[in-house]
Design goal:
By secondary structure, this protein is of the alpha+beta class. It contains 4 helices and 11 strands. The protein has one domain: Sandwich (Immunoglobulin-like).
Length: about 190
């Protein structure tokens, strides 16, 4: 009986540690716009994301901008920083958005863009109409990328940075579960 209680205690501690390992507090708090700068600005939230398939697809990546001309379109693309990324990649278009009457916008990376442009994968549907991600090439390189926002009509630009990091243990575990369920296929 005591052995059973001891094993149960270890199991509970283990589950708590596993659940906390995926949690992290932002060190500096959320990014904020400069109130002293009226030029175009952009903020990426979160500033760092994992290249694990399940983690990337579940992460909501949002671009918020201000200081642009009202009622304009913006294109958002990634440019590699040559210092952090060994293989030269061209710019990667990842989102579009529209500014409101104050010149602010909010845009996100859609799942299909995450699959095709960031993971460099394909997607298909199974018999239950669930998406299956087919990985047949490595994803974009880990490292720091410049997020460049350009307005279509007026040429205004703003930059921020987005870091892609290697999948950690929990991200790899989620991907293995996805593979076991047939939702992620590696070729």
């Amino acid at each position: 009986m005591n052995l059973m209680k001891s094993n149960l205690s270890y199991l509970i501690v283990f589950l708590i540690l596993i659940s906390l390992s995926g949690c992290s507090a932002e060190k500096n708090g959320p990014a904020l716009f400069s109130i002293y700068d009226s030029s175009p600005q952009v903020i990426v939230e979160p500033a760092s994301i994992s290249l694990g398939v399940a983690a990337l697809l579940d992460t909501k990546v949002v671009f918020k901008g201000r200081g642009f001309r009202p009622r304009d379109s913006v294109n958002i693309k990634l440019l590699p920083l040559k210092d952090d990324i060994t293989e030269a990649e061209s710019s990667i278009p990842i989102a579009t958005g529209y500014t409101d009457k104050e010149g602010n916008f909010s845009a996100k990376i859609e799942k299909l863009v995450k699959i095709s442009e960031l993971l460099k994968a394909d997607v298909t549907l199974n018999d239950n109409m669930e998406p299956i991600v087919i990985l047949d090439a490595p994803p974009i390189n880990e490292g720091v990328y410049i997020v460049l926002v350009e307005s279509l009509n007026y040429g205004s630009m703003a930059e921020d940075q987005l870091t892609f990091k290697a999948p950690d243990f929990m991200d790899r575990l989620k991907d293995r579960i996805g593979e076991a369920r047939g939702l992620i296929v590696r070729r």
